[in-house]
What we know:
- By secondary structure, the chain is of the alpha/beta class.
- The protein has helices at 6-14, 29-40, 50-57, 77-82, 99-112, 129-134, 150-159, 197-200; strands at 2-4, 18-24, 45-48, 65-69, 74-75, 89-94, 116-120, 144-147, 163-167, 184-189, 204-205.
- It has 2 domains: 2-69, CATH 3.30.1330.30; 74-205, SPOUT methyltransferase, trefoil knot domain (Alpha/beta knot).
- It has 8 helices and 11 strands.
- It has a 7-stranded parallel sheet, with helices on both faces.
Amino acid sequence: MLIYGINPVLEALRARRVVDLRVSDRAGAGVRDLVKVAEREHVEVRRVPPADLDRAAKGGVHQGVVAEVRDPTAFTEKEIVAGAAAQPLIVVLDGIEDPHNVGAILRTADAAGVDGVIRQSRHAAALGGAAAKASAGAVAHVKIAEVVNIARAIDELKEAGVWTVGLAGDADRRYDEMDFTLPTALVVGAEGSGLRRLASGAGHRC
Length: 206
């Protein structure tokens, strides 16, 4: 999987997922600091012309650095629930396909201490490139479970004692009125269409 940008690559280095690192031969201070981290992690650094990075990033803003990384560790929804430090807080992505939106959600989930993200494997945005850049490196740290059927995954969460809450613009309760001290999964609907019927009927809406 290919990622680019200083923050995503730096976090991937810290997570020891980088297998190939290319930096611009005209690198600035930010990239030079990143190279020092790579050297500490014993990752070989290749210096290449900026045009090579432009081609690799396919138009993405690479900031002078591109890396090939190992795919993130695959988790199941049961492993995410069992691995929670306290009461589980999980985010479920119901059909979100825009990589920038996926990245922004991962960034927010990481900052909020979410225990993991569950998403459908079909019609899902790739976690490299734009998603990794938008996540500011959070994709290297957030536990992600990919499932075939979101509705079935939600049922399994309920069977595990996790309260499911669908986020909807027309709901009659605000998200900050919910009791997040309970095991909770927040279900986020797709761009434009929102929550699908099977997902929206899985629990409360806010």
